[in-house]
Amino acid sequence: MGKLFAVVLTIITVVSTAIFATRVWWLPTDISLHGPRIDHQLVETMVSCGVLFVVSQLSLAAFAWRYGDRRDGRPVKAFPGGATPMVVMAVVLVGAEILALTFVGAKLWAGIYQTPPDPNSLAIDVQAEQFAFYFRYPGPDGKPGATHPELMNEATENYFGLDPAHDTTARDDIVVPTLTIPVNRPILLTLRAKDVNHAFYVPELRIQQDFVPGLAIPLHFTAVQTGKFEIVCTQLCGLGHYNMRAYVEVMPQDRFDEWLKEKVAQQ
Amino acid sequence: MRTHFIAVLATTLVTGGLVRPAPPRAAGTISGKVTYTGTPPKMKPIDMAKEPNCATAHAAAPVLTENVVPGPGNSLRWVVVYISAGDQGSTAGTGTIRLDQKGCQYIPHVLVLQPNQPLDIYNDDPHSHNIHPLAKLNPEWNRSQPAGAPPIHTKWELAEFIPVKCNIHPWMHSWQVVLTTSHYAVTAEDGTFSLSGLPPGKYTVTAWQEQFGTQSQDVTISGTETKAVDLVFKATPY
């Protein structure tokens, strides 16, 4: 039985390591400027955890193979000092590894999320609600209109609660359900939630950020590749959560300008 | 004596309380047109990118918002015109009313029914919808209806103007208007309407538009005449 366990454990270890090592199961292609740093950190984390995983699993398999079928109940050898120093040592070693990964990861995270956005960023407001995302561009005047929650009305497509009757800056605001952005230009999103917690996750952009009701959360990035990618909500937000998605469409600057003109004309 | 009693009873049955008298044959009609003055809001194209089935279905001609649907000659579509006071000769609604969800739209945009009149709601799309009537006087409910699910059989008990939304597709919006009178109409594309079968009397005709509110007018019908009534809303672009 001990030998069978050792064989099964070895197979599981080799197969699961191979899945990651050969990148059969991996993130989609990165299309963001900051993405390579995330991917590099992810690889470092996977390698350090992976080495420990392989060593510990194979050691376990080796011990199970060698001693698993003994039935006399005699200890082979005792850890020096007994069980207590063994547990303390394990906690310290594992703790040190987790702490090291946390520090390295936090530094990287802060370097992306906590740095100020480029002053020339294209500012877009994002509103998440059950069960859709909406994006608002300030329009030709460059000023976004004030929002009034009591004026939100889905029947008139007033998802942000704008007051065009009294607020002239709101009249040219463009509200769309697809995040349309130019390639190679810094983008600054401000995330707001209308009802409950939601999340903005675009695997290709290497971005995942929660929406929290009552908070305006800034998020900046630059896409370096054109294409259409899915935005999904990764916070369980209600009955229709499974269907809460939108798309980000990254296009060349000239096509983006045309798109913007077309939207302005529709206002 | 006995013969006399039977004769009296028969006369009472025929002419009196046990047999309901037929409504008077003389019935008039109110017909006309609902229009607006001023500038109505633009009908905006709806982007259904979130639901690829619907986005593809409407790729050639995007669906437009229907909160205000202007037509030729400043007419207004989807306005409910009904007798709001002086109603007589109304009958209970018995026929089943149908609401469809097709191409991520509610069809029709405005439907009228009477208390306890059967309403069947169908999902004709290859994906789920979630019907959510935002009733205040009647009990509010919301129900999921997956693709291929049987129709939802329901009804409303109280008169009310009920906005309806889909919890999955925020742009889907419609109205279910529950009226006690059977004298009602929803304006056509050219804003016209007709209320027929009105016994002689004095009536108040009210037109209801989801964004502009109501407009009323008093009308007196005598005999079988047809009275023309035009109702005008003041439109604002926002």
Largest sheet features of chain A: 5 strands, mixed
Portion in strands of chain A: 15-25%
> What is the CATH fold-level name of the largest domain in chain A?
Immunoglobulin-like
Overall number of domains of chain B: 1
Largest interface: A-B, 23 and 28 residues
Secondary-structure map with pairings?
The complex is a heterodimer of chains A (267) and B (238).
Chain A (H helix, E strand, L loop, with lengths): L1 H20 L13 H33 L15 H31 L8 E8 L2 E6 L36 E3 L1 E5 L3 E8 L4 E5 L4 E5 L5 E6 L4 E6 L12 E7 L1 H14 L1
Parallel strand pairs in A: 1-5, 4-10
Antiparallel strand pairs in A: 1-2, 2-3, 5-8, 6-7, 9-10
Chain B lengths: L1 H14 L12 E11 L13 H6 L11 E3 L3 E3 L2 E6 L11 E6 L2 E3 L2 E4 L5 E5 L5 E5 L9 E3 L6 E3 L5 E7 L6 E6 L5 E3 L5 E7 L2 E9 L3 E9 L4 E10 L3
Parallel strand pairs in B: 1-18, 5-8, 7-13
Antiparallel strand pairs in B: 1-15, 2-3, 4-14, 4-16, 5-6, 8-11, 9-10, 9-12, 12-13, 16-17
Keywords:
heterodimer, A: 267 residues, alpha+beta, Immunoglobulin-like, five-stranded mixed beta sheet, three-stranded mixed beta sheet, elongated, B: 238 residues, mainly beta, four-stranded antiparallel beta sheet, 18 strands, globular
Protein model, in words:
The complex is a heterodimer of chains A (267) and B (238). By secondary structure, chain A is an alpha+beta fold. Chain A folds into two domains: 112 residues; 145 residues, Sandwich (Immunoglobulin-like), CATH 2.60.40. In chain A, 37% of the residues lie in helices and 22% in strands. In chain A, the strands form three sheets. A five-stranded mixed beta sheet of chain A has the order 3-2-1-5-8, with no helix packed on it. In chain A, helix 1 packs antiparallel against helix 2 and helix 2 packs antiparallel against helix 3. The radius of gyration of chain A is 26 Å and the shape is elongated. The mean pLDDT of chain A is 92. Helix content of chain B is 8%, strand content 43%. In chain B, strands 7-13-12-9-10 form a five-stranded mixed beta sheet, with no helix packed on it. The longest helix of chain B is centred in the N-terminal third of the chain and has 14 residues. At the A-B interface, strand 10 of A face loops of B.
